[in-house]
Design goal:
Blueprint lengths: L1 H5 L1 H11 L7 H23 L4 H13 L4 H8 L10 H17 L3 H13 L10 H21 L12 H8 L12 H9 L8 H9 L2 H11 L6 H12 L2
Helix pairs in contact: 3-4, 3-8, 4-7, 4-8, 6-7, 7-8, 10-12
The structure holds fe (ii) ion.
């Protein structure tokens, strides 16, 4: 693969780290493959913005390492619920600082970018960063959300009522906080709110071209006790304005 060969130095650092964990564990393998897809999305977003090759490379590296905290989390808590571990973005930033970053690059400016993109990839909002750091935080957040939307919650068991607070967030074009998710339908609705924190044309185009949002609408319609027309129209209108 073209990307694998070009980025082999970073992939080796990533794989050496992941090899300390049990590859037979589905949780580990899930995040390993997710990391590669997010890295590729991040590089493609950077390309779509006509950034320089060095910037595309930084975006790829940020994407590859953004979930590095997940592997220890899987080992220790056997779940990806941060309530049973700690914030995995913060933990990932610590893994980079303590162990990996010195092998990735000696450039302190780039080291800081990669650490901050990891730290803030999963936060409700990006913390205090400079303009350059913010660019990579935003790229990784879009790339991560794209992959989550494509691969997660495409099937649900059961039928659930719509949660007023989550629906309110959708109608007001706001991200949902994690804490308000109580069932699988809430999880799906929260995921659709990711659209309201996506920044780049590449992301919207990818979501539309790959039928990702239509699939989510279908699941929502089939697993809600209530009519979802207002939600669907609201999201369609938002996307068409992008
Ligand atoms: Fe993550």
């Amino acid at each position: 693969m073209e990307y694998e060969d070009y980025y082999k130095k970073y992939i080796k650092i990533f794989e050496d780290y992941v090899s300390k964990y049990n590859k037979e564990d589905a949780l580990i393998e899930k995040k390993r493959t997710h990391s590669y897809r997010v890295a590729l999305h991040a590089a493609k977003i950077a390309e779509s913005l006509n950034l320089e090759q060095e910037q595309i490379d930084i975006a790829y590296i940020c994407g590859l390492f953004h979930d590095i905290g997940r592997f220890e989390q899987a080992k220790q808590s056997h779940t990806y619920d941060d309530r049973y571990f700690q914030d995995h973005g913060d933990y990932g930033a610590k893994v980079l600082e303590d162990e990996l970053i010195k092998y990735i690059t000696e450039d302190e400016r780039i080291q800081k970018i990669i650490i901050l993109a990891t730290k803030y990839h999963n936060k409700f909002e990006i913390g205090k960063v400079n303009e350059e750091e913010e660019l990579y935080c935003k790229i990784v957040r879009d790339a991560d959300k794209l992959d989550i939307m494509e691969y997660q919650v495409n099937e649900i068991d059961g039928v659930y009522p719509l949660d007023e607070e989550v629906v309110g967030n959708i109608l007001n074009h706001k991200l949902c906080r994690n804490g308000i998710v109580r069932n699988k339908l809430d999880h799906l609705l929260r995921m659709m709110c990711f659209l309201f924190d996506m920044h780049y044309d590449y992301s919207f185009k990818y979501i539309i071209d790959n039928g990702i949002i239509d699939k989510k609408f279908e699941v929502m319609k089939n697993h809600s006790t209530e009519d979802t027309t207002e939600i669907i129209n609201c999201i369609k209108e938002y996307i068409s304005g992008k």
